[in-house]
Design goal:
The protein is an alpha/beta fold and 383 residues long. It folds into two domains: 245 residues, Thiamin diphosphate (ThDP)-binding fold, Pyr/PP domains (Rossmann fold, 3-Layer(aba) Sandwich); 124 residues, Rossmann fold. Helices cover 38% and strands 19% of the residues. The protein has a six-stranded mixed β-sheet, sandwiched between helices. A five-stranded mixed β-sheet has the order 4-5-7-6-12. A two-stranded antiparallel ribbon has the order 1-8. Helix 13 links the parallel strand 14 and strand 15. It is globular. The chain starts with 5 loop residues before the first strand and ends with a strand.
Length: 383
């Protein structure tokens, strides 16, 4: 069994900061925004106290922060940033540039509703709006998973077969401000899992002039974008490999890195969810199993790339599936529901989508029980 680190009860935002500290980035451009603020405050403290050798850039806006992250990563150093909600929206112009340049930036996104009306609480509307920006998106359920996924995100992003940016998404307030027991790896353990970053292409080097981000004419642009799409799809193999290696070193696992199954053996019906809703779903499933109901959970951990084959395999014997979205594609349905329907279009599974938990509204056990009982009916909002 892998040796344990130091176990403490800490805030999930501190767990994120400790994961970043263990990853030893060289540059952290930042601009604070609720509910991300505690993460960058902790990192600023670590740097000020001499616990981290890192350059923190205090940007004048989120757009400036992500632009600085682009520049730092292009210079060949490990780079981290963090944001939320309107801050992520302000960053959007730069997001596809970073992925198009194949820069392995890691960013923590503390999921928060988009305005208007102004709302500082949790849903997934911010990161879902960026799902087509070319970034890998990983969603976490707990403080422990947040710390662990930060370390895994750098391994994934910096893999020479990937070289893509990664968002680590955690529910604002519902998780960011919650205190939980967390096993903190030692620096030595972290270094064995995540070696020092050596970019094979240090692009911004005055001694080796090169053009970065050139114009893509019609005869080349599609090839660039296809290469990006193909790499993102293929990154599932790296995500799976990194997850296995993490388990071997730390004796903790999160499914296969793409999805995590709970009590799916013999299940005829299931809930599919992301983030902290998965924790509530486990409690509901335990209650239903105790009453003889064959219900399970498919927790989607990786939203982009979308693990189509894993979802098909998990759902192949299901009679019914309730898909929980914490965002909505206005004028249609939840974006997760759209993707699940496309992935399972050849299945005979009855699939019903539910919009829930927008703007920080609690997603209760009663809501999820309602969803299970409504499978096969019209999609609905769990108000």
């Amino acid at each position: 069994m892998a040796k344990k680190g130091n176990k403490k009860v800490i805030e999930a935002s501190t767990a994120v900061a400790l994961g970043v500290k263990l990853a030893e980035p060289s540059v952290i451009p930042m601009y604070p925004i609720t509910p991300q603020t505690h993460q960058v405050e902790r990192l600023a403290e670590y740097i000020n106290d001499g616990e981290m050798k890192c350059e923190m850039l205090h940007a004048e806006s989120e757009h400036a922060a992500i632009s600085a992250a682009l520049g730092a990563s292009a210079a060949g150093v490990r780079t981290f940033t963090a944001t939320s909600s309107q801050g992520l929206a302000l960053m959007f112009e730069v997001l596809p540039i970073i992925s198009g340049m194949r820069l392995p930036v890691v960013m923590a996104v503390s999921n928060r509703a988009l305005s208007s009306p102004i709302n500082i609480w949790n849903d997934h509307s911010d990161s879902m709006a960026c799902r087509d920006s070319g970034w890998i998106q990983l969603y976490v359920e707990s403080a422990q998973e947040a710390l662990d996924t930060i370390l895994m995100a750098f391994r994934i992003a910096e893999d020479k077969k990937v070289l893509l940016p990664v968002m680590v998404c955690l529910d604002g307030f519902t998780l960011t401000h919650v205190f939980e027991p967390v096993d903190i790896p030692t620096p030595a353990q972290a270094k064995r899992f995540l070696p020092k970053f050596r970019h094979q292409y240090t692009v911004l080097d005055p001694k080796k002039p090169a053009t970065l981000g050139p114009v893509g004419f019609p005869d080349t642009y599609m090839e660039f974008r296809k290469a990006l799409s193909d790499t993102c799809i293929e990154s599932q193999k790296v995500i799976n490999k990194v997850s296995r290696e993490f388990k071997a070193k730390f004796n903790r696992e999160y499914g296969n890195g793409l999805i995590e199954l709970y009590r799916m053996n013999g299940a005829t019906h299931a809930i599919l969810a992301m983030g902290t809703v998965a924790g509530t779903a486990r409690a509901v499933i335990d209650d239903l199993r105790a009453r003889g109901k064959r219900v399970g959970l498919i927790k989607l951990r990786c939203y982009r790339p979308f693990p189509v084959e894993d979802i098909r395999k998990a759902a192949k014997n299901l009679k019914g599936l309730a898909v929980i979205d914490r965002s909505v594609s206005y004028g249609y349905e939840g974006p997760l529901m759209t993707d699940i329907m496309a992935a399972l279009r050849e299945n005979k599974t009855a699939i019903t989508g539910f919009i829930a938990g927008l703007g920080g509204r609690d997603v209760t056990k009663e809501h999820l029980m309602q969803a299970i009982n409504s499978i096969g009916k019209n999609s609905d909002w769990l108000l």
